[in-house]
Amino acid sequence: MDRLASSPLRNLISIIAFMAVVVVLATLAYMSAGWSFSDALYMVLLTVYTVGYGEVRPINTPFLHIVTVSLIVLGCTGMILVTGALVQALTYSQFQQFLGANRVKTDINRLKGHVIVCGFGRIGVMLAKDLSAGRAEFVVVERDEARLAQARELGYLCWQGDATDETVLRAVGVDRARILATVLPNDAANVFITLSARSLNPRLQIIARGEAPSTETKLIQAGADKVVLPTHIGAERIAEMILFPETARFIRGSERMRDFEKVLRDLGLEMEVAVAADKTAVVGQTIAELEARAGGAFFVVQINRRDGETVTRPAGDLRIEAGDGLVVVGRVGGRMNAIFTAPAERPRAGRTVF
Q1: 330: exposed, middle or buried (C-beta count within 10 Å: 0-12, 13-18, 19+)?
Q2: Which pLDDT does position 201 carry in this prediction?
Q3: pTM over 0.85
Q4: For the chain, how are helix, strand and coil distributed in percent, rounded to 5?
């Protein structure tokens, strides 16, 4: 298929090379008969392009007759071939684009329960790579031609367009899709895509990327099921390694734990380390109170005290202290972040705050 695709271009290059050789040899032949370079080249171009302004100098010797006749036959024939090859290459290119677009559309129309990835930037590339490794059916939506070409080279199913346009979302089968991941670096675009996708498919699971922490609430209100804050997650991972190196190594380091995390993700769960910051509402609460406040969103499996003590399977009446690292398992996300970042309530008269 690649050999056929390159054939028109290869033919065009070969014919142009042939014409270049004809022009050079004919120019040298006229110059050997005593003509100047400018007169020789001018005569060759007039003949090759069949303009017919007249002879530059008299063709009055048998040698010049042979050169001129050969130039007429080879040059004019070569120009006809160049024209034909050029038309063939242009036509083939347009034809391939037409067939390619139709083939992509046909492949997308066959998808059902697939994943739509909006954006093929830094995160989109990694996401598509993991989806491909997991043999998930997905389509990449990207408006930038260079990034789209990169996705095609990697063998991904792609659609060029602006994902904020509902027509584009319909074209990639948003009504039949299972999950939409909008990972553009533009928060406003991600919010708009989330709103559009939710209106087009109420059953769709939407995972959205946010840059600013304040965008998380907007994305959830727009209809996102899960929000990922790459900067926030990266900072949390670094903090884990600094504050709780043993726990970070335990959770992230072994192949067994990575397999366990994959099983959790398949169940819609995740394992994370959350820090009980000073002057937040979780400080002073018991494990049972925290889990009740979470409403089943997560449960605590381990506590890492600031002094280095590790408490596995913590009892329900164990109180959380400032600086503790809590290993939690559950449907983490916006609710967990809200609970662990909520400020402590100010004590009121006649009321004890835990």
Answers
A1: buried
A2: 94
A3: no
A4: 55, 15, 30
